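About this split. The held-out portion is used to measure sequence recovery: a designer receives only the structure tokens and must propose an amino acid at every position. Recovery is the fraction of positions where the proposal matches the reference. Here is one held-out target exactly as it appears in the evaluation file.
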């Protein structure tokens, strides 16, 4: 039993590590995977696990971008340190909408929206939106090609788009990347800013779930949680590097198609097994 639960944690960690950064919805995929592969533990722990496992994924961003995000790096000039602090201010401002609404609606969203139908519909709708946005932006030069040129207003508006990710299947990265593209940011800038937004958002969400669950874990629970986080961390590093390399020469259209196909398959599967 213990070994099988750890194997499940490894699989869930792989799913989290891949889907957290690609714009295809990690929460949505975790909900879907659980239909076929569910931890044999109490529901409170499973709910907490699905959120806190994201800590492993977010640590990958911290490791990859540590120098870029560190305003106290002695190798940076005074100007570079100031730019780094400005970036953090923009991240904090962008996080405010989702933080406020998330705290107010966390339990209600979990109760009403965490199901396969909502996930499938959100996958399809945002898949279509990705294709439309990429089609409209074909051949157009982005207005913002550097993070330092991202204004506070644009950062806040990207944060407003992030609120949409509270609906499972939407994708936090998908919402903010779409928002960034619509507001004139390049694919690379929109993607990097999305990575940075994840740091306070996911740390905050994980802390909230741990506080609600309590800090007392059984040995098996601690092992499962740690295993999932470590696997998510390793896989996230690979997924982030892949995405950054991919978008240099490709659009997000392929992800849009993937979302539509997966959403349709999910609706068909659950309709046939209703």
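Reference sequence for scoring:
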């Amino acid at each position: 039993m213990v070994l099988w639960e750890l194997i499940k944690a490894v699989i869930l960690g792989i799913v989290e590590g891949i889907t957290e950064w690609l714009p295809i919805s990690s929460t949505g995929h975790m909900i879907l995977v659980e239909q076929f592969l569910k931890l044999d533990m109490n529901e409170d722990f499973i709910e907490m696990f699905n959120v806190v496992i994201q800590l492993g994924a977010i640590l990958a961003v911290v490791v990859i971008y540590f120098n870029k995000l560190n305003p106290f790096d002695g190798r940076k000039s005074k100007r570079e340190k100031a730019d780094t602090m400005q970036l953090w201010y923009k991240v904090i401002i962008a996080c405010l909408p989702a933080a406020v609404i998330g705290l107010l609606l966390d339990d209600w969203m979990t109760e009403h929206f965490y199901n396969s139908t909502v996930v499938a519909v959100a996958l399809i709708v945002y898949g279509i939106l990705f294709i439309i946005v990429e089609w409209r932006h074909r051949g157009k030069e982005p207005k913002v090609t550097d993070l330092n040129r991202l204004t506070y207003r644009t950062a806040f508006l990207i944060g407003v788009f992030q609120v949409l990710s509270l609906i499972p299947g939407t994708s936090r990265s998908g919402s903010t990347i779409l928002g960034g593209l619509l507001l004139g940011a390049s694919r690379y800038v929109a993607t990097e800013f999305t990575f940075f937004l994840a740091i306070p958002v996911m740390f905050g969400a994980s802390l909230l779930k741990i506080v609600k669950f309590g800090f007392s874990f059984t040995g098996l629970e601690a092992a499962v949680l740690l295993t999932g986080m470590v696997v998510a961390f390793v896989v996230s590093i690979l997924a982030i590097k892949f995405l950054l390399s991919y978008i240099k020469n490709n659009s997000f259209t392929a992800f849009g198609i993937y979302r539509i196909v997966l959403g349709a398959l999910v609706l068909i599967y659950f309709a046939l097994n209703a």
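Annotator remark: Residues 6 and 142 are 45 Å apart (CA to CA).
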